[in-house]
Specification:
Length: 361
């Protein structure tokens, strides 16, 4: 049943709209009152806690998911730091491999390397029985259900949720962060229904897509928890809508990208409420001063604050806990990529030159 489109025109559209359900199945049986139970990790949590580093490895959307979850993992783990894609892996490290398919050749090559070097290897995948699931020492299945569209959508949000749950499990041994952990767990319970609310923006996002149909390029500025959202939103737009798009760190704006700003280049600024909000407000002010063509994503009720006088387009999204906000904020961008693709007449589920899973090096 999962591999039929049902009432949808495309798999990507179906998978975007499935997210309240896929997130529910990702969390099913794993939240108990005020704690997280990840059966696949329980015998290894101590080793992970005592690792020198936790290193995340993934490609494309899976890489962006690790980047989205990283700040919270850093907050709740004692590990020295969490690294990105590059650099050597040692015996004292935990290496976490993130892959929807579990068959991406680049990721599997890095897995062989980490295994050779004696690191604890953890797999986070959507595919039971995949090479990644078989070769890693332990792991978590994201249980998002079959994903057919080449552009990954529901797997991304489920990956973030799994890594957030992993951070909660790692941080479970400390009283000091108990209140924070409990508030995030509370947020996880509510997340699927909030995602359902965000999906109601579909019509509004379709209108936005209509206004952007002829744009040459689209910039997305994010920061903090939502830097990954900017990268992933831009990746979706370039993958399927075949429009040049870049996700950028908003703090870097005045060091180069500002030169591009004019009345024609559309720029999305992610400015939902978190500790980066005031910095994002000043980015918006600078862009408005240069008459940038702005679309601001903000928390519900903030429209007139981020965009006084209605001088830019605004996407208002519900506010959730900071580390869960990337799950909410990516959804309007997934919808935007989808509608842009349909309006521009490109193949949604099979974008040119791309494969769902790249199994060769
Ligand atoms: C390909 C797909 C991307 C995907 C990436 C990683 O490039 O086109 O959508 O994010 O592989 O795939 P994985 O299965 O390892 O998550």
């Amino acid at each position: 049943e999962q591999i039929k489109k049902g009432n949808y025109d495309h798999f990507m559209q179906k998978e975007i709209h499935e997210q309240p359900h896929s997130l529910t199945t990702t969390m099913r049986g794993r939240l108990k009152d005020k704690s997280v139970i990840l059966g696949g990790l329980k015998d290894h949590l101590k080793t992970i806690r005592h690792s020198r580093r936790v290193v995340f490895i993934g490609c494309g959307t899976s890489y962006n998911a690790a980047l989205a979850a990283r700040p919270f993992l850093e907050e709740l783990s004692d590990c020295e730091r969490l690294a990105g894609q590059e650099g050597p892996i040692y015996r004292e490290d935990t290496a976490v491999f993130v892959s929807q398919s579990g068959e991406t050749a680049d990721t599997l090559l890095a897995l062989d390397y980490a295994l050779e070097n004696g690191a604890l290897c953890v797999g986070i995948t959507n595919t039971v029985g995949s090479a990644l699931a078989r070769k890693t020492h332990c792991g978590v299945h994201i249980n998002a259900g079959c994903e057919i569209g080449v552009a990954s959508t529901k797997a991304y949000t489920s990956q973030i949720v799994v890594m957030t749950m992993m951070a909660l499990a790692i941080g479970d041994d400390r009283i000091s962060n108990q209140a924070r952990r409990e508030s995030i767990i509370d947020g996880l319970y509510k997340l699927p229904s909030v995602v359902g609310e965000v999906l109601k923006l579909d019509g509004q996002i379709n209108d936005l897509a209509k206004s952007l149909i002829d744009a040459q390029s689209l910039l997305v500025f994010g920061r903090g928890y939502n830097y990954a959202t900017a990268l992933e939103g831009a990746l979706k737009v370039k993958e399927v809508a075949l429009m040049h798009s870049e996700g950028m760190l908003a703090g870097e704006m005045k060091h180069g990208p500002l030169a591009l700003v004019d009345e024609t280049l559309p720029i999305i600024v992610i400015a939902t409420r978190d500790s980066c909000f005031s910095k994002q407000q000043s980015v918006i002010q600078q862009l408005r001063a240069r008459k940038g063509r702005l679309v601001v994503m903000c928390s519900e009720g903030d429209a007139s604050l981020v965009c006084p006088g209605g001088s830019c387009r605004v996407i208002e999204v519900p506010q959730v806990a900071d580390c869960l906000q990337p799950v909410i904020n990516i959804i309007p961008l997934q919808l935007l990529a989808y509608h842009l693709t349909v309006l521009r007449g490109f193949d949604v589920d099979q974008p040119r030159n791309l494969a769902k899973s790249v199994t060769t090096l």
